[in-house]
């Protein structure tokens, strides 16, 4: 069940939205002031936040700005103000959409569906590929795209590179890599990691050998942003 947070100080409107959204099958919570709403948004997970602009305690623009420093939860701003400047301020501070009051519940639901479809599409794309700098690793085709060039990988090269790309900024020891990629195969020696890293570096075709996979002497390797 998708969770919706309503941050709205007009109780009648908030309760009307709660009733309509619950009827549509959503789980709904309400915060009647900006500070409480920000606290809920920061400490819990929601699928969409409906955020009023004029709020006691902390206005909607400030709630949106502070939330965006920590989370990407989709936000639709709801406000009686409909000036161009208000819309620009809301969108510039991280709102995904803007709906002036009064509005029809059908329009709000339609805008929510657009956001849900966008989030679902982004999630599918993330699950199908990994990215790092100018590289995109397709997890289905097991091909690497770099600067519009397709690079074919062996099974072990693919497994090693995908593990690196899933652990950006984490130093991976040779033992960890052996456990994850080779499952401590008794016939595999530790230096096989060095051999495969060298193969990957050569395939990435760059003069700067550690531009993508960096050596941490005496420990292992890391891909750093």
TrEMBL record:
<feature type="DNA-binding region" description="OmpR/PhoB-type">
    <location>
        <begin position="127"/>
        <end position="225"/>
    </location>
</feature>
<keyword id="KW-0597">Phosphoprotein</keyword>
<protein>
    <submittedName>
        <fullName>DNA-binding response regulator</fullName>
    </submittedName>
</protein>
<dbReference type="InterPro" id="IPR016032">
    <property type="entry name" value="Sig_transdc_resp-reg_C-effctor"/>
</dbReference>
<dbReference type="GO" id="GO:0000156">
    <property type="term" value="F:phosphorelay response regulator activity"/>
</dbReference>
<dbReference type="InterPro" id="IPR011006">
    <property type="entry name" value="CheY-like_superfamily"/>
</dbReference>
<dbReference type="GO" id="GO:0032993">
    <property type="term" value="C:protein-DNA complex"/>
</dbReference>
<dbReference type="GO" id="GO:0000976">
    <property type="term" value="F:transcription cis-regulatory region binding"/>
</dbReference>
<dbReference type="InterPro" id="IPR001867">
    <property type="entry name" value="OmpR/PhoB-type_DNA-bd"/>
</dbReference>
<feature type="domain" description="OmpR/PhoB-type">
    <location>
        <begin position="127"/>
        <end position="225"/>
    </location>
</feature>
<feature type="domain" description="Response regulatory">
    <location>
        <begin position="3"/>
        <end position="116"/>
    </location>
</feature>
<keyword id="KW-0238">DNA-binding</keyword>
<dbReference type="GO" id="GO:0006355">
    <property type="term" value="P:regulation of DNA-templated transcription"/>
</dbReference>
<dbReference type="InterPro" id="IPR001789">
    <property type="entry name" value="Sig_transdc_resp-reg_receiver"/>
</dbReference>
<keyword id="KW-0805">Transcription regulation</keyword>
<feature type="modified residue" description="4-aspartylphosphate">
    <location>
        <position position="52"/>
    </location>
</feature>
<dbReference type="InterPro" id="IPR036388">
    <property type="entry name" value="WH-like_DNA-bd_sf"/>
</dbReference>
<dbReference type="Pfam" id="PF00072">
    <property type="entry name" value="Response_reg"/>
</dbReference>
<dbReference type="Pfam" id="PF00486">
    <property type="entry name" value="Trans_reg_C"/>
</dbReference>
<keyword id="KW-0804">Transcription</keyword>
<keyword id="KW-0902">Two-component regulatory system</keyword>
<dbReference type="GO" id="GO:0005829">
    <property type="term" value="C:cytosol"/>
</dbReference>
<dbReference type="InterPro" id="IPR039420">
    <property type="entry name" value="WalR-like"/>
</dbReference>
């Amino acid at each position: 069940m998708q969770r919706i947070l309503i941050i709205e100080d007009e109780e009648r409107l908030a309760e009307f939205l709660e009733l309509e959204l619950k009827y549509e099958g959503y789980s709904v919570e309400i915060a009647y002031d900006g500070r409480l709403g920000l606290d809920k948004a920061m400490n819990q997970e929601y699928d969409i936040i409906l955020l009023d602009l004029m709020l006691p305690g902390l206005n909607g623009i400030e709630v949106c700005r502070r939330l965006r420093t920590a989370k990407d939860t989709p936000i639709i701003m709801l406000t009686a103000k409909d000036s161009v400047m208000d819309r620009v301020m809301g969108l510039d501070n991280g709102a995904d959409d803007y709906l002036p009051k009064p509005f029809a519940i059908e329009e709000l639901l339609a805008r929510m569906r657009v956001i849900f479809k966008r989030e679902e599409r982004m999630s599918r794309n993330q699950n199908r590929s990994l990215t790092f700098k100018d590289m995109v690793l397709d997890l289905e085709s097991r091909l690497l795209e770099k600067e519009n060039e397709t690079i074919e990988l062996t099974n072990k090269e693919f497994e090693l590179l995908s593990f690196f790309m899933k652990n950006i900024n984490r130093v991976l020891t040779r033992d960890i890599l052996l456990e994850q990629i080779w499952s401590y195969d008794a016939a595999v020696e530790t230096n096989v990691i060095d051999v495969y890293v060298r193969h990957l570096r050569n395939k990435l075709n760059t003069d700067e050998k550690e531009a993508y996979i960096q050596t941490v002497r005496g420990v292992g390797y890391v891909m750093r942003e």
